[in-house]
Structure formats: C-alpha cells, structure tokens
Write a structure and sequence with these properties.
heterodimer; A: 462 residues; mainly alpha; 15 helices; 0% strand; globular; B: 218 residues; 2 domains; 44% helix
Chain lengths: 462, 218
C-alpha cells in the first residue's frame, strides 16, 4: 500500500520541516489512534484533569449559589452593570476565533501547515464558545427566562429588540457555534471510521461506529466529503470576521466614551485572533510534549503561530494607539477625560499599564526567532497575552462605566470572590472538555496527516 | 473484517434523524396547542358558582344595565361584585322562595357575603383599570363577550398579553361611541376603523404610549 519515493527532497534552509518524514501511513495512524485506544494517558493528564474537574466544581457550586442568592453576590453595581460576565464572554469568544481562522481561512488560502493543528484548534473553539455561553446565561439573573433572548412565538406577542446588538450577539454566537460544530464533526468523520476499525470489538467500536456514520472511504464518500468540507469552510470564513465584529458592536453601538469608536470592529477581530492563537499555543505546547506529537506539530507550527500572534498583536497595538490618538484628536471633552482617566486615574491605571505590557510590549519578543521556536518562552508569551487580552476587556468595560458623563453617577467596581469563582470555573470547564477531547477523539486529523505525508514525500510540501 | 452494524442500521439512523425532527416539531406544536387551549386559558369553561347566576336572564331578559350591579366600573379599577343587598332588592319580591336562591337568602340573613368564583383573573403583575377603559370607549362586551346570551357566565378571552396588545396597538378597531359602551347589542359598524380613529382623537388616546411596558406593568 505504501508508495515508495526515491528522492525525498531536502528540507528548506532555515525553516523547520512541516513534519518528520520517517513515518508511514500506518505509523501516522498508530501515533494518533493509540493515544485514544491503546496507550494510557500520559502522567500529567491526570492532575490536569483533576484540576479541571475541581474548578468545574467551583463553577457548579458558585452557579448554584448565584441562582439561589441572585446577582447581588457579584460585584456589579449601579454604574457598572456589566462586570466580569461580559469581560469573560468577550474573552472566551475571542479565544474561540483561532479555530475558525485556522480551519476555514487557512483552508481556503491553502496554508497547509493548518493540517496538524486544525482539529485541536476547532475543538478548542467549541469549548471556548461553550464557556462564553455560560456568562450571558448567568448574567441575565433570571436564567429560567433566558429563552426571551430568542425570537420565539409567544402569547405576549413580544419579540426581542431587533435593533439591539445584544440580540445580534445571540445570532452571531449561536451561528458560530453551530457552524464550528458542523465543521469539526465533518472533519472528524473519516477519522472516527479509522478509530472504529481499529477499536476492539465492543462498546467503543459501536460508539465510534455510530458517529462514523457508515463511512467506508469509497471514492464517492471522499468526493462528497471534500465538497462538504469546502462548503462549510466557505460558510465559516465570514464568521471569523463577523462574530467578533458583532461582539464589538455591544460596545460600539452605545454612546459611552471609550466604547463608541469606529476602530472597535477591526480592533476586536484582531484581538480575538491574537488571543485565540495565544490560547492554541498555551494548550498545544504541553500537549505535543506530553503526547509525543512533536513529529507532527513541529517547530514550524510554533513559529507560524507565533508570527500570526505577532502580526495580530501589532494590529491590536495600533488599535490602542488609535483609541488614544483619536480621544485627543477629536477634541471631545468626554473622550479626552476617558482616556486620561483610563491611563492615569480612576483606580484602574494599573490594569491599563499591565495590559500595555502584556499585549504591546511582550509580543515584541516574538521578533526573535529563538523565542518563536522555543516552546518554553513561547508558552510564557502566550500566557502573558492571554492575561493581557482579559485585561483589555476589563479595562474597556470598567473604566468607561465607572466614569460616565455625569459625575453624580460615578462609582468603582471590583470583582467579588464569586466573580472570580465563575471565571476560574469556566477555565475548569475548558480544561475538562479538552482533557476529555484528547482522551476520546483523535487530536490530529489522521487522514490529512497522511495526505500531507505523501505530499512531503513527493516534494510538494516541505 | 466483520461489519459493526447490519446494513439496515443506516435506515435506523435516517429514521432517527427524520423522526427526531418530526418529534421536535410535533412537541413544539403540541406545546403551543396546549398553551393556548382552554385547559390552560379557561376560555369558555363554566366553573361552579354558589348560585347559578344567569346574565342571560338578567341582562338579556330583564335588560338590567351593567352598572346596576357593577356599580364602580366607571370610577374604579374594579368593576365591583354586587353585595347581597343588590340581589335582594328584587329577590325579596321576585322568586322569594326559590330553592336555587337559598344561598342568597342565607347570605342576607347572616351578613356573610357570597363567595363567587372569579373567572377573569389577571396575574398580579398586571395593573388593569376598568374605569379608564370605560372612559376611553371600550365597551363591556368587547372583552366579556355576549354576556346577555350566557346562562352561566364564562370567560371568553384568553387574557394573554397578545390579546391585550391587539387593542393597545390598534384601539381604533374596537372603540365605541360613549353612549354605546354598555350596549350589549353593539356591533362594529362597517366604517369602524374610520369612526374608531375619530374616537381615538376625541377621547385623547395617545396610541404610541399604550404599548409602553409601564402602562400595565408598574
């Protein structure tokens, strides 16, 4: 079955290869499937899963208490009606953007290095969107009435406010989740069939078999599969831009100083991709280490992701600059006050400067090749960017709301222990889902790796 | 290699997908039907009353004005349920010994009011005021139906918010001239919308404000 090629081309100079070539189709399948079917989980998986579960329990308990006591246990107050909940929502949704970018945009642009990381990034997207989805549910305060956000026919002849960006959000995020799920699942089908065929007879084979939808790998199957995958890819490509644009409208459509700016949509989208790639790196670096996937997720991938991070980081930095510049240039008293308050006063200046350090200064190290190609500094950089992107939303939400137009309405905001519990708990949900994902599903697309392997042997890819 | 599933399994999956869709649709439809059916709305359901009072006899037969019994309808939120004395105004002379009226005489003797079963009961978060509706030209039968034809009183409208909004969004379809408000025989004329618009103007109804939340939910 294995085709023999005599001349394996030399790798490119100065650029690490896309994957190790001393593999066969069989060894690729084994490397990915054995993680799920044969080998025990690597040792660090257990403590990580444990911590994830523990934090998930924190989320569950704090949510129960929240439903019992009401929103008063959070730090939100009169000027600051949007606290951690919206910060976390935007943060998680932003993180989710890497998945679609990697899977759809890079697919359409024939960026072949997506092959080894798209499955993982898409899974991460789904989990991040789930985490994001928790917060509106909790923040409405009356979770039993959450169905009000959907335009359902009802005996009150009431509809949601279609002119509100919060409703656009509902559609943007639910569409995003649905399309991402479809895309991810479609991509999984051939691999689920591989797992079905390799699994021992019994419950595992049956379950993988059900989800493989009778995939036999016939030419007709492949033809339809490729068409469907490309179509869903085409559908999800605009979502990369639209979803976070709409999330930014939550702010930009209002008239609050610091929110009402035209830079918001592109700046939010860039920030989303920035944080998404940071999160992919945060997760992939340990995973490739622990699961021994360095043959497939190579230094090349780290390097490329770091470059995307650097590029989007620069766009984000431009966004910060432009916010500050136009606050001054507009001559608008409120905008100018907002900016100087954000930077120097109001009790949140520390958050602003931390954000500048995390999001503007620290990614500049990514100009250095050594940082881009070394897991440890890159991991640190990705964590710093994650923190920075959280702080960005915190600064935007809190500084603008605490200093509104009327000094009489000013106030302060701090998250309470329950705010933190919900936030940390959502990270627990994320970790738990990721652990389950690597335990039960192939974390890298097997058949795409095989295609890539053949292309590398033929010299079409290096 | 042995197959995991029999060939028929495909059909099963397809059936489950299609059937699941149909089941979800049917469940939604069922929910809607139950929700708007008399099971929940109590429309057109006669409920037991201490005395089988007939509006048909009193309003249709005897042509007694609504306000003879429901005295506060023009000036208070509550239309008013008549005290036993109102009944006895006539029934001390008319049918004084009818066995059906025994609870009325009992109440008169003991001074303990008759406890009627309420039919049109709005939720407590809705502030409804009869007087303003009467003052702005909403007739009794618009909401309470052909009361003069009911041997036993029943609820005729769902009292769903959508029903309230039918009128609050377009009162011109329902408003009557002042002198026809208590007229049980009133039918909307052919030019109702035209006349209604005139009445809206005349009564000073600001239609846009009628759908403000706080008009009913204070």
């Amino acid at each position: 079955m294995e085709a023999q090629y005599v001349d394996i081309p030399e790798p490119l100079e100065n650029i690490p290869p896309l994957a190790e070539t001393d593999h066969s189709y069989e060894s690729i399948s084994r490397a990915v499937c054995d993680v799920v079917l044969e080998k025990p989980m690597p040792r660090p998986w257990y403590p990580v899963f444990g911590v994830g579960n523990l934090l998930l329990a924190v989320l569950g308990l704090s949510t129960m208490y929240l439903f019992y006591r009401g929103l008063g246990i959070w730090g939100i107050n009169n000027p600051v009606g949007w606290g951690f909940a919206i910060v976390n929502l935007v943060w998680w949704i932003g993180i989710g953007h890497a998945g679609t970018l990697i899977s759809a945009i890079l697919l359409l642009f024939h960026q072949d290095w997506r092959t080894a990381i798209n499955r993982f990034a898409e899974a991460m997207t789904l989990f991040a969107v789930m985490c994001a989805g928790i917060f509106p549910l909790l923040h409405v305060g009356r979770p039993w009435a959450i169905y009000f956000i959907f335009p359902l026919p009802n005996t009150m002849s009431l509809w949601p406010q279609f002119r509100s960006p919060l409703l656009w959000d509902v559609f943007a995020i639910s569409t995003y989740f649905t399309v991402s799920l479809l895309f991810w699942y479609t991509g999984l089908i051939p691999d689920l069939a591989t797992l079905r065929d390799r699994a021992p007879r019994g419950i595992r084979r049956t379950i993988y078999g059900i989800f493989a939808l009778g995939w036999r790998g016939s030419a007709r199957h492949w033809f339809r599969y490729e068409m469907a995958y490309l179509l869903i890819g085409g559908m999800s490509a605009p979502l990369v831009v639209s979803v976070h644009t709409i999330v930014s409208f939550d702010f930009a459509v209002s008239v609050i100083p610091g929110w009402h700016t035209t830079i918001f949509p592109p700046y939010f989208v860039a920030g989303a991709i920035y944080s998404g790639f940071a999160m992919v790196l945060t997760i992939l670096i340990p995973v490739r280490e622990w699961f021994n996937m360095k043959d497939f997720i190579t230094t090349r991938h780290l390097d490329n992701m770091a470059k995307v991070m650097l590029a989007t980081g620069l766009v984000v930095a431009y966004g910060y600059f432009s916010e500050a510049f136009y606050a001054w240039y507009s001559g608008n008293e409120y905008e100018r006050f907002m900016m100087s308050n954000r930077m120097f006063g109001g009790g949140y200046w520390w958050a602003y400067w931390c954000l500048m350090f995390c999001n503007v200064l620290s990614p500049q190290f990514l100009w250095i090749k050594w940082v881009r190609q070394n897991p440890v500094p890159l991991f640190v950089a990705s964590i710093v960017v994650n923190i920075g992107m959280w702080l960005e939303r915190y600064v935007i939400v809190v500084t603008s709301l605490t200093r509104d137009f009327l000094p009489q309405a000013w106030g302060q905001y701090t998250g309470t222990i329950f705010d933190w519990a919900a936030y940390v708990g959502s990270i627990g949900l994320f970790i738990t889902m990721l652990c389950l994902f690597v335990r039960f599903l192939p974390m890298i697309s097997i058949f795409e790796l095989r295609v890539q392997h053949r292309q590398m042997l033929r010299g079409e890819l290096r | 290699m042995a197959q995991v599933f029999r060939p028929g399994a495909d059909i099963l999956v397809r059936l489950m997908v299609v059937g699941g869709g149909i089941a979800a649709g049917a469940a939604a439809l069922m929910g809607w039907v139950v929700y708007s059916s008399p099971v929940l709305t109590q429309v057109d359901i006669n409920r037991a009353q201490p005395v089988p009072f007939s509006h048909q006899r009193h309003v249709g037969g005897n042509a007694i004005d609504c306000r003879f019994c429901h005295t506060s309808v023009e000036e208070s939120p509550f239309a008013g349920i008549p005290p036993t004395e109102t009944c006895m105004t006539c029934h001390s002379q008319v049918l004084p010994d009818a066995p059906l009226l025994q609870p009325v005489r009992e109440s008169w003797k003991t001074g303990k009011p008759i406890v009627w079963t309420r039919l049109n009961d709005l939720p407590d978060f809705v502030y409804f005021d009869h007087s303003v509706h009467i003052a702005k030209g909403v007739g009794c039968t618009t909401c309470h139906g052909a009361i003069d034809e009911m041997p036993l009183t029943r609820k005729v409208e769902t009292l769903h918010m959508s029903w309230c909004l039918n009128c609050h969004r377009a009162p011109e379809k329902f408003l009557r001239p002042k002198d026809r408000i208590f007229d049980v025989d009133w039918e909307p004329p052919a030019n109702q919308v035209e006349q209604g618009k005139r009445l809206v103007e005349e009564y000073g109804v600001t239609v846009g404000q009628l759908t403000n939340c706080s008009v009913c939910h204070r």
